[in-house]
Write a structure and sequence with these properties.
By secondary structure, the chain is mainly beta. It is built from twelve helices and 38 strands. The two termini are about 35 Å apart.
């Protein structure tokens, strides 16, 4: 079908009943945009298409007077890791002195890689606008999650996998806009100095706060029990303390795994703060509600917890109260439905928690612990110990998201260590307090302010979330039914937000943005028999969302943007979901093995709207290794592995 015929068909579909346009009536001006919908980008069907990122979608804009206008979309690359921008190389991995790191720490086999290193996994973006309207300065903060692979330091040896083997970086790019075409260009670039927070550990997604700062998550926090007596070598590379444990002056595991806030001033100067009071978890990102106090955090891993933080003061994340959710199931089918109850874990100021870290607190200072076998052999000798089965944290050599092998451990908080446990071992302490710990791969979070809805990506719905699959987990709150192969394709959940709620101790929760419910909104599904024209390597339906990760919501378009990170789609897709029509549309395809990251919707920059969108780790060997040679060898050879920092253009101003 031609692009014109696709559009003609789409326009007939987009003729919604008049009440849809009138439901959100505002002063009726001819140029006011009433509705935005998208035509579909076809899935790649050839090797040439599978090897690149592209969009062939149009935005169909309906104005208040009934006019419709079509805007073709295009994907634009600002820069790629390793590119020189204004004299600086993008995504360069440096130490605390700003010098390139030239050799990685040894892996489990004792092998090291040689640098310089440029991280091929650009993740979150925040386009920050400063100054008067029409004369704004534009800055783009971009963080890099990890590097994929690098040449061995020993000539002739195969490349080494680099996940979690290096400290990571954030770049600040100054952007120039062409006022007529809207084209953006990166004209100056620098590494944001991470020295004040002792380096950056696996930064994943992020959000732009209502007060115009970049709020990043550090994912897969280092397993503090392991690194109590072992050196955390990737961060030792940054600190220039090779071989040293925390006690010897090396990197401290408890320094990493918290949200990180970055401020930028009009001159392009940055400041960085680690938000210790928000807890420590595998933070996909932290997302702030319109009250500028309530924050939700996705905990990315298997057997994880849903967290909420409420700051004491608006626009100040340095002190507040941390809560964890308990899922009280009301329906098991179609991804499930539940009432959420919130457990208060504690209140802290970041100065208190930072002081504990600076003074060298360890896992053994916080907990007494025994393994399941020892406990069951003599329960009477371990009175007060409770079973905990959660994602354990990341070891330096772990694969993405795998961390420490799961299993039940029995823990008891040492006297007086409740606050340390709540804010440095947030997931374990939440488990001890009765929070639900069965969520799997909880990723992005976004909100719809008008309807007071929260959206949460659950990339893989599996394991402890499935009824009858709880194994030796001590809790069984989530008991979903349905085809496990459908559920493994993931879901986006929706929560109703409101006030007047109390925590499980009966104390009022001081927010009008508390998630009270949780139910599946958009679900994936296994590939149907006979779907062979394209997507022949996909395990999940090529024409449905699979394994959602990045989420961003546009109030102006009434649209949720969903970026995939799927091992069940060879080519990951970017989707739009209109909350009024429930229409799901594919608007972009990424190169084979790549993930859609860096989502941000910027509604009006001098008459142009941008969908910031990055491509991460395309063609990475780790992501393609399960496929046949036609993919992991032949197709991979066509893919540019560097990834890209970019944006989708073509949309008009959506906000006046």
């Amino acid at each position: 079908m031609t692009r014109h015929s696709v559009l003609t068909a789409a326009l007939s579909i987009f003729c919604l009943p008049s009440f849809v346009l009138q439901a959100h009536a505002e002063p009726r001006t001819a140029n006011r945009i009433a509705k935005v919908e998208f035509t579909s980008t076809p899935a790649p069907a050839t090797a040439e298409e599978m090897a690149v990122g592209y969009t062939r979608s149009d935005a169909v804009v309906t104005y208040a007077d009934g006019r419709r206008k079509v805007f073709p979309l295009s994907y634009n690359v600002l820069y790629r890791p390793g590119n020189v921008v204004g004299g600086r190389q993008a995504a360069l991995i440096v130490d605390r002195e700003g010098k390139p790191i030239m050799r990685s720490s040894p892996d489990e086999k004792g092998d090291a890689a040689k640098g310089p290193f440029f991280a091929f996994a650009p993740d979150a973006n925040s386009l920050i606008r400063l100054g008067e309207k029409g004369r704004e300065r534009l800055y783009l903060v971009t963080q890099f999650e990890y590097h994929t692979e690098a040449p061995s330091a020993v000539d002739g040896n195969p490349p080494l996998q680099m996940y979690a083997q290096l400290p990571m970086a954030m770049n600040l790019a100054a952007l120039r806009q062409n006022g007529k075409t809207g084209r953006l260009q990166a004209v100056k670039l620098s590494n944001i100095d991470m020295g004040p927070i002792n380096g950056l550990w696996i930064p994943c997604a992020a959000s732009l706060t209502p007060w115009n700062t970049h709020l990043a998550g550090e994912e897969y926090e280092p397993y503090a029990r392991l690194f109590e007596n072992a050196p955390l070598e990737p961060m030792n590379l940054f600190l220039k303390t090779p071989g040293k444990t925390a006690r010897e002056g090396g990197a401290k595991a408890y320094d990493y795994g918290h949200p990180v806030e970055v401020s930028v001033d009009a001159g392009g100067r940055t400041s960085v703060v680690r938000r210790y009071a928000m807890g420590r978890l595998a933070a996909e990102l932290a997302h702030v509600m319109p009250d500028e106090r309530t924050v939700y955090m996705g905990d990315d891993g298997r057997d994880v917890v849903f967290f909420m933080f409420i700051a004491d003061k608006p626009r100040d994340l340095s002190a507040g109260t941390l809560y964890a959710a308990r899922w009280e199931q009301t329906e098991a089918a179609n991804g499930g439905k539940a009432v959420l109850r919130w457990i208060r874990l504690g209140h802290a100021a970041e100065s208190e928690i930072k002081a504990l870290v600076d003074n060298g607190i360890s896992f053994s200072d916080i907990f007494e612990s025994v393994d399941a076998e020892a406990y069951k052999g003599n329960p009477a000798a371990h009175a007060g110990f409770q079973p905990v089965y959660v994602y354990g944290g990341s070891a330096a050599s772990s694969k993405p998201g795998s961390g420490v092998k799961p299993g039940t451990v029995y823990l008891r908080v040492r006297p007086g260590m409740e606050k340390a446990a709540a804010f440095l071992e947030s997931r374990r302490y939440a488990a001890l307090r009765g929070a639900t710990t069965e969520f799997t791969k909880m990723e992005g979070v976004a909100h719809n302010g008008r309807d007071k809805k929260l959206y949460i990506a659950m990339s893989y719905v599996e394991a402890g979330m499935i009824g009858g699959k709880n194994d030796d987990r001590p809790r069984d709150d989530i008991r979903l039914t349905g085809d496990a192969k459908d559920l493994a394709c993931g879901a986006v959940y929706e929560s109703r937000l409101g006030g007047g709620q109390s925590d499980t101790d009966g104390s009022p929760i001081p927010s009008d943005w508390v998630a009270a419910t949780m139910e599946a909104l958009v679900t994936g599904g296994r590939k149907s028999f006979g779907q062979t024209a394209y997507g022949k390597h996909d395990a999940c339906d090529t024409d449905r969302m699979a394994n959602p990760d990045n989420l961003k919501y546009s109030e102006e378009m009434r649209t949720l943007f969903i970026g995939e990170d799927s091992g069940n789609h060879l080519n990951n897709f970017l989707w739009t979901y209109n909350v009024d029509t429930s229409r799901l549309t594919r608007i972009m395809s990424a190169p084979a093995g790549a993930e859609h990251t860096g989502l941000q919707i910027v509604p009006n920059v001098n008459g142009h709207t941008y969908i910031m969108s990055n491509i991460q780790h395309p063609g990475a060997a780790q992501d393609l290794k399960k496929y046949p040679d036609e993919v992991k060898v032949q197709l991979r050879s066509r893919v540019d592995p560097r990834g890209s920092v970019g944006y989708i253009s073509g949309l008009p101003a959506l906000k006046r």
